[in-house]
Amino acid sequence: YGDIYPPTHTCLSSDCPNYHMGVLTEPVTYQATQFTLQYGVLPIYSTSMYCHSKYIYHHNFSVHKNTNVLTYYHGVPSTIQVATHFFIDTLLLELFANAKVFGWQVTMHQLSSMNCTCIYNVALAHPNAYILNNRLAFAIAQGTEDVGKSWPCSLQMQDEDVLNGFFIYSLLLDKAEKQSQLVLIHDSLQHTRIDAALIVRNKEMEGIGQEAYPHACDKCFAILNNEQGQKVKIQAAVCDGNAIGHLCCAVHDCKKPLDNHRLRFCSDHHNLSNICAVEGCNLPCSLGSKTCHTAEHSKLEEAYYKPAKALFQLRARLTRAGLSVPSDSVTAEEAEDIDEESLIMRPCGIILACATFYGSEAVSAVNQFAKAVFPTPQSTPEYFIFDNNCKLHAHQEANEDHHFSDTAFPVDVFHFNSKNRETDLYCQAHCNPAAFPDLLENGKWCFNTSICEQTNVWLGGYQAILCNMTVHRYNFYLDEMIKRWNQYINSELKKAGIHTWLLPIAA
Q1: Which residues contact 27 (CB under 8 A, 6 or more apart)?
Q2: Residues 6+ apart with CB under 8 A from 179
Q3: Does 149 score more than 80 pLDDT?
Q4: For residue 216, what are the CA distances in angstroms to 197, 210, 232, 369, 490?
Q5: pTM of this prediction?
Q6: Cβ count near 249 (within 10 Å)
Q7: Containing H/E element for 107?
């Protein structure tokens, strides 16, 4: 049905003696599958070409034959190779990426790569899928499809290819925005070489890395006159946590990623896997158990797994009754420690940053997170709204931390009324929202101080998708969803007639 070639007939490397001169030779052609949005799934032939100097040219990238360095071409291609024999059109990957962002509006859960795969294979893989899926309505005879049976490459999309496609597409978009090229190592597995690039991008996204970081608009930025009649800016930031975090090492505050999401400890603390799981007990585990031979500890483990056993028994009864049981209702044995994600947002709905808190939402961690997002005195907001600002402000005073000396720390109205007693004089003095008249206009709050909790409803929909990802993929996936969400929020603000602009980063 088609052929895919390199986008050039000559060598593109400036250090090659055949640069833009000698024609590429020795074509190597193999069978592959291309997943498209317009034409469905297509059996194709993919051809690579050879430069006698150093390089092998493929459809998306060139490979240096001596160093195995894989360099993607500039820009974003119309079709992306997601595996050796599988290609997905960029238009389809863009559809999948947006489905992952907005699926919650339909299902109250985000669409996973497996969901996207099922939708494609059922509804988009064939141009006449609407007829084939409704044969009775269109008076089409029932029968088995012979298309693709003789083709050596599967014509069924796989969820792993969708996820790899999402990562590669997102990386290429990022590089195109920065007018650079994606460079990977070719002598490793696909997921391994992708992860190396994800780690680099994740580091760039920390603190002020989000595209929408310089955002300002009429809903989060105000100009007021101070007591001296001078005009001053008022900007607010809101912080809150979400318990969707990724699995982590059971050692408190250990930041080293797990080698496998089913492990309890990272490689540095792997020796603790043979120690009784009961806190404070240093006896070795009994064979086939996570606790020692102590009777009380064995009973604790038995009680821990009792709900899972009860679920297994109920599932067995359903099976004997001839009823099917959803596969996703199985309780998996997972690591017990889960990190927490925290957001810092503008009241208009733009997410400035997301960070992982290892173990808990300690005020020291919130303080470090806030300093990473607002690294200079010019960047600090006039108001930082957080439900535990009383302890955060006390922590800063105790440590003589003056980074936020020009920032006020009110607690939002809901949390102040529900969590802070009138007898807490420190909180009343420093964090009572009524003490900050700039936050009020005609008796109403100028800013939406509950925006984080509202956004967490959207963010929480990713928990089932993210829980089994490695930490690098988890962080990249979440950053990409936030980036696309911010783009959507910004477009909605403009549609509503709200003026938006970008501030200098230092401001």
Answers
A1: 47, 48, 49, 50
A2: 74
A3: no
A4: 31, 14, 15, 20, 10
A5: 0.81
A6: 25
A7: helix 104-107
